[in-house]
Design goal:
single chain, 236 residues
Amino acid sequence: MAEKRSSFVEHLEELRKRILYSLAGVGICSVIGFVFAKRVLNILIQKTDLHSAYFFSPIEAFTTLIKVTIFIGVFISFPFILYQTWLFIGPGLTQKERGISISYLSSGIILFAIGNLFGYFILIPFGLRFLLSFGSEYLQPLMNISKYLNYIFWCLLGSGFLFQLPLLLFFLIRLGVLDVGTVTKHRPEAIVAVLILCAFITPTGDFLTLLLISVPLLLLFELSIFAARFSQRRKA
């Protein structure tokens, strides 16, 4: 019991260290991002057809720059956070599992970048165009910068993290935690779960935004099943 308690305490200490390292990485990258925060904010505002946004309290402009700074810090430090996560999980894996997991680190970073690009170039402009189309001659939008940034950040980070799901599925199948046949058998339930998760992640509940994010995610989901099945056949 004493050995188990000691091992549990060591795991908690390791987890605390990895979390602190990740927060430190975000903090350092945020300091760097503060230099570019105003420029990034201007680029994000230009994504709307209004080309301007407004703040409704004296401190809101400052807190907006802080939000952009933290967002840049999280975005830049994501590979480092992913690496710290692997350092915590890696020692508990076998040599084979560790070799497989290392190969997925770069894939996770690439998918995160693709998800952010998808959110920036497709999800945000088409979603905004659809939502703003409900205005009229007497119903004009007055874009509050805080709420607008919440929408932007949810779209970018949500897309980036959602694009990790197919890779996670493929990784679990390669490790033998999940079986391709079981996943294929329960595909309808998995699709419903993906749609619910997309509805939760996306900042608005409109059908177009949900469709834009769910279609490529479901395609990646099917691609991961196909790749896992092909990998198992090749291994056999």
